[in-house]
Design a protein that fits this description.
globular; 11% strand; alpha+beta; 9 helices
Length: 202
């Protein structure tokens, strides 16, 4: 899909004022993950970063948000902030968390920030579909790097089931093949058109 990337690529540059404001907001509304406060999580993050990217500086924060989400904000080519919602920490085991963290680190590692755009600002249908296609490719690449971080498909698969269901180990038997069989039904239902999605259906 080289033509899609060529269609979207531009002379990207960091807006230092915007990123400074973003970091200021995070410092005020979230808590930095340090060894002194969150030793187990801190050690996991260091181990995960060392498996992927030792050339960039990453800062990790937890925010008290019940939505299952995490995000990566690239501050520069060599630094990024990753914000993890508390719901993610509560729901996932430590090794499963590595899959999510690896996914977010990958967004910076692969320089996905140079492709980020507000989909609502894209008026051309051709450009919008190209952007969405690239977005799905980016998410798939990040999932693959997340899998490398855990080095265990069963761990990654269970993390995905927890993400989709919002349930903990208490309620789950890890049978990812069963979930995949459900996803195969989508192509026959006509309910979802993947070309209009930013993420793949796992």
């Amino acid at each position: 899909k080289k033509e899609h990337r060529e269609l979207l690529d531009s002379n990207f540059s960091f807006n230092s004022a915007w990123y400074t404001n973003q970091k200021s907001y995070i410092l005020a509304s979230a808590i930095r993950i340090s060894y002194e406060i969150f030793p187990d999580i801190y050690n996991l993050l260091n181990d995960t970063v060392s498996k992927i990217d030792t050339k960039s500086k990453y800062e990790f924060f937890i925010t008290s948000d019940n939505a299952f989400n995490a995000k990566c904000i690239s501050i520069s080519e060599k630094s990024a902030i990753i914000v993890i919602n508390s719901k993610v920490i509560e729901l996932l085991e430590t090794n499963e968390l590595a899959f999510i963290v690896g996914h977010e680190i990958a967004h910076h590692y692969y320089k996905h920030y140079s492709f980020m755009e507000d989909i609502d600002n894209i008026s051309s249908e051709k450009l919008k579909l190209a952007y969405l296609s690239v977005s799905r490719d980016m998410e798939l690449s990040c999932d693959r790097l997340g899998l490398i971080c855990v080095d265990n498909f069963e761990v990654a698969a269970k993390a995905i089931i927890k993400i989709v269901s919002g349930l903990s180990d208490k309620f789950i038997k890890n049978n990812f093949k069963k979930y995949l069989s459900q996803l195969k039904e989508i192509s026959h239902s006509g309910l979802v058109e993947e070309q209009y999605q930013t993420h793949n259906n796992w």
